[in-house]
Amino acid sequence: MKTEDKLNNLEVFEELESNVRGYIRGFPAKFVKSQGSMLWDETGKEYVDFFSGAGALNYGHNHPDLKQKLKDFIEKDGLAMSLDMATPQKEEFLLKFNESILKPRNMDYKVMFPGPTGTNSVETALKLARKLTGRHTIINFTNAYHGMTLGSLSVSGNKLSRSGAGVPLTNTNTMPYDNYFEDETDTSKYLEKMLADQSSAIEKPAAIIVETVQGQGGIKVAKDEWLKSIQDICRRYDIMFIVDDIQAGCGRVGTFFSFENIGLDPDIICISKSISGYGLPLALTLFKPELDIWEPGEHTGTFRGNTLAFVTAIETLKFWEDSSFEKSIIEKGKKTRAYLEKIAKKFPSLELEVRGRGLMNGIASPRRNFGEEVCKEAFKQGMIMDKCGPNGEVPKLFPPINIDDELLDKGLVILEKSIESYAFNQV
């Protein structure tokens, strides 16, 4: 096949790119344009985006304010990459983040730029907890997902992801997440029993790491009381409490941090995904000032100083200066939830379960290939949507948090039609 012909299909990717590629299999098109909550492929077909770059595009594609700031910065020959040197953009981001996000929430944290992605933030959190306590073990939870590098992978639960490690994933203990047994069992009591029992073979850990809402794990939402119990256990046993807010943070569930209204006060917080707001790689590890025991250069990385990401991140923080933005996300979340509940009632034979908080939602079914088939049909009808859960059983709704009502409605109708198609084919 001639080169020019290959450019019109996906054979180049099949021939030259590794088998490890994933999203291209669920979204088999070449995308050439994006704006707001929409994408277009090279044929001109348009798609409503209920994927948001796996949560890295909470503010949509090519937001005009962010784009203009980025263009202006590039035109002035600003430093695109600065390692951890001082730049006006990093300075402004730190000040803005402190004034717009931390201080209004009475939060006092040091900011560390650990590397460009979420797994860098998690790796740093684990390393710091071990350095602080002198202990090696980390406690994580079933169905957790924290990243693909070895440390992050060791505290993740997905069998397929873990199988790619190539070495034993050690120095961790996995405990049952909230409602893991799908009954009234309080798994936080199980955790404390294991820590207190001198014969449990569970060593006192350096840290416990938790997601308030498990994204890749299937949109599992932990109860507020359970999360507070986990924090209380950490306090009683002198264990570092880490919240991984990489997917659920930056407004995805309504508030900027997913734990704001729960009463949590983590020792360490992991942030990435949409902190830059434009899809540019940036990650933060936040920790209490008294925990900042790093030696200069003890943890480093080439791409920590992504100045382009600082430029757009500064602009996104302006959204959070007005409480109306947070309220709009919560209202859209309620609207989405109500629509999902309506769909669940419409198809009782599918045993649908609505899950989520804010604009981090899913609708699960025990039926065979439900997630895969619904997402495939949605793609045909013009919507990008991913699946999640241990068996990919949950279509995952991640629209931009600033999506307009018309496009939100359109996406929800496509979801309903896709589920209807699945139900029809099960007859």
Describe the structure.
With 427 residues, the protein is α/β, with parallel strands linked by helices. The chain folds into two domains: 3-63 and 323-426, Alpha-Beta Complex (Aspartate Aminotransferase, domain 1), CATH 3.90.1150; 78-321, Aspartate Aminotransferase, domain 2 (3-Layer(aba) Sandwich), CATH 3.40.640.10. Helices cover 38% and strands 15% of the residues. The protein has 15 helices and 17 strands. It has helices at 3-6, 11-16, 23-26, 52-55, 64-75, 88-102, 118-133, 150-154, 159-163, 187-196, 224-237, 307-317, 323-346, 370-380, 405-426; strands spanning 31-35, 38-41, 46-49, 110-112, 138-141, 172-175, 207-210, 213-214, 220-221, 240-244, 268-271, 284-287, 353-357, 360-364, 383-384, 386-388, 394-397. The strands form four sheets. The chain has a seven-stranded mixed sheet with strand order 4-12-11-10-7-5-6. Strands 1-2-3-15 form a four-stranded mixed sheet. The longest helix has 24 residues, at 323-346. The chain is globular and about 55 Å long. The two termini are 42 Å apart. The model is unreliable at 3-7 (pLDDT under 50).
For this entry, give a set of tags.
15% strand, 427 residues, four-stranded mixed β-sheet, alpha/beta, 15 helices, globular, Aspartate Aminotransferase, domain 1, Aspartate Aminotransferase, domain 2, 2 domains, seven-stranded mixed β-sheet
